[in-house]
Amino acid sequence: MNYQLPVHPEEATKKLFGVLPKRTKDVLEQRFGLGKNSARLTLEAIGQKYGITRERVRQIEADGLGRIRKSPAMAELGSVFEALEAYFNKEGRVLKEGAVLEALAPHPKHANHVYFLLSLHNPMVRLHESDEFHDRWALGVESDADARKSLDGAVDALRKTGKPVQENELFEILSASAKNVFGGSPQDAVLGNWLGLSKLISKNYFGEWGLVEFPEIKPRGVRDLSHMVLSRLGKPLHFSAVADEIGKLVGKKVHTQTVHNELIKDERFVLVGRGLYALKTWGYSPGVVRDVICDLLKKNGPIAKEKIISAVLKQRFVKPNTVFINLENRKYFKKSPDGKYSLK
């Protein structure tokens, strides 16, 4: 959602730069990408351009920002900075940088101007990205700490759950975590903004939420995608159908043979028929029909043919005659006078 500042960001910047000497103005324009080149240059790059040290560039930058903050122009634009604080207070006090710039810049080309205005305002703090969080702006470091604690609590709760959850469940988890931090829970809109800060929590193809370490959330290759498809559909599928379903998810064709090769290698999947795969967690035991019969007889002792066939057909999608042919293999099974079969 866009939020309109009382003064256009580019106009505000122009007014503030009016109090600066030319070289200082040039340095700040390059540091913040406010000139013809929108790239934000490093201290090193600017120093090389002027033949001065990076430390000298830093001093010029600090001097320029100090002059602007003390200038009458800064005071005249007080409504802009009040509006920035109001926006942050409404949206949760700490926000992902990309979301802030998108919401406050009338056009993407004005994003650097918003960035500059945020940098000028002392209560605003920019926090760099880490392994767990994205680049973000906060109305005070305490606000960032509170949001991070709330998200950390949600991550711990999701890790204990160990599987994806629906969006409403995620918000309940994050709300409960925030309540432990604040003693009260922010609105869902604020919780949603905080979720945008996290690199650890994400949404999968089906709109379910969880940790990126969950294969159901961030599948790592064909095997995880196959597991996601079968888990979602809840029934055995031919490997070609698995490939088709993966293709629908990722938006591009997946080679059928690649899927077959990966399913064979992964113990999470069990071949239960000609090209049909199921998940081991559904209760299917690995192996060929003979192996299923052996396991059955090991657990239960001698069993009548009809019961063996019935039990095997729950594990394998084969014809009854296929089970009977395996039973007749005298190398592995023997038939007693009462008609029951046992291991040899």
UniProtKB/TrEMBL annotation:
UniProt superkingdom: Bacteria
Database matches in Pfam families: Sigma70_r4
Q: Which GO terms describe its biological process?
A: DNA-templated transcription initiation
Residue ranges annotated as coiled coil are none
- Residues in domain RNA polymerase sigma-70 region? 18-70
A GO molecular-function annotation: DNA-binding transcription factor activity
What's the protein here called? RNA polymerase sigma-70 region 4 domain-containing protein
Q: Which organism is it from?
A: Candidatus Giovannonibacteria bacterium RIFCSPLOWO2_01_FULL_46_32
